[in-house]
Design a protein that fits this description.
- The protein has six helices and nine strands, in the order ααββββαβαβαβββα.
- It has about 220 residues and is of the alpha+beta class.
- The chain has two domains: about 50 residues; about 150 residues, no CATH class.
- The strands form two sheets. Strands 3-2-1-8-9 form a five-stranded antiparallel β-sheet. Strands 6-5-4-7 form a four-stranded antiparallel β-sheet.
- Keywords: Membrane, Transmembrane, Transmembrane helix.
């Protein structure tokens, strides 16, 4: 059974009907328009209908954005294949881009990004958090091993750094609520696939992409 039409669509429909009714006094032929106070009163009602139409359309737009503000946006998937002891091949897939393969050392993978989150007016206007992936790296579960073991860090930044230009221009604008780094990490397990999402507050969130990965995590004690 199909879902019922959301409230925002009903508001848009009502706004359209009110707008049509509000325009009638101005669209009627001149010879059929009533003169005097009645004609002026009709145009007054038309203006009120147009204002109500704008208000309903605005409210519908806010409600349309509300669903997005409570949802995570998938930004990448990471699949893992074990090559040896604490050695894995990670396949990174991003929407609209070709998959990339990296060798990662350690027990856990970590994906780092820069994020700009907008203020509430910007969010309601449809401005999603802006992110840029910085690096994909491996980390060791034992902090002592982390200090001495071989590291693996892969640069995910683009060749031409337009980010700094945007940071300069957005730094003084009130629409930017916060600018910070965000990271997500989970254990590297042979055959595991993870989905990385950007949440409405601008943070990276990683979770199992399938039941097999969920089972692997449970078996690993996560």
């Amino acid at each position: 059974m199909e879902d019922a039409m959301p409230l925002s669509n009903w508001l848009f429909l009502a706004a359209g009907l009110l707008a049509a009714l509000g325009l009638l006094p101005w669209l009627r032929p001149r010879r059929t328009r009533r003169r005097g106070s009645r004609g002026g009163f009709g145009r007054f009602l038309g203006a009120v209908a147009l204002l109500l139409a704008l208000a309903l359309a605005g409210l519908g737009g806010l409600l349309r954005q509300y669903h997005w503000l409570t949802a995570d946006v998938p930004v990448a998937t990471i699949s893992l294949r074990q090559l040896g002891s604490q050695r894995f091949e990670a396949t990174l897939v991003r929407p609209g881009q070709a998959e990339r393969h990296f060798e990662i050392l350690g027990d856990e993978w970590q994906l780092d990004a820069r994020v700009i989150r907008w203020t509430l007016p910007g969010q309601l206007a449809g401005m999603r958090p802006v992110y840029r992936f910085e690096r994909l790296s491996g980390r060791y579960g034992d902090p002592k091993q982390e200090l001495v073991a071989q590291r693996s860090v892969h640069d995910l930044r683009e060749g031409w750094d337009f980010w700094e230009f945007r940071q300069r221009w957005l730094a003084g604008l009130p629409v930017a609520d916060a600018r910070w780094g965000s990271a997500a990490y989970l254990p590297m397990l042979d055959g595991a696939t993870y989905e990385v999402s950007l949440n409405p507050r601008g943070g990276l969130v990683a979770k199992p992409a399938d039941p097999r990965t969920e089972l692997l995590l449970q078996q690993a004690g996560w």
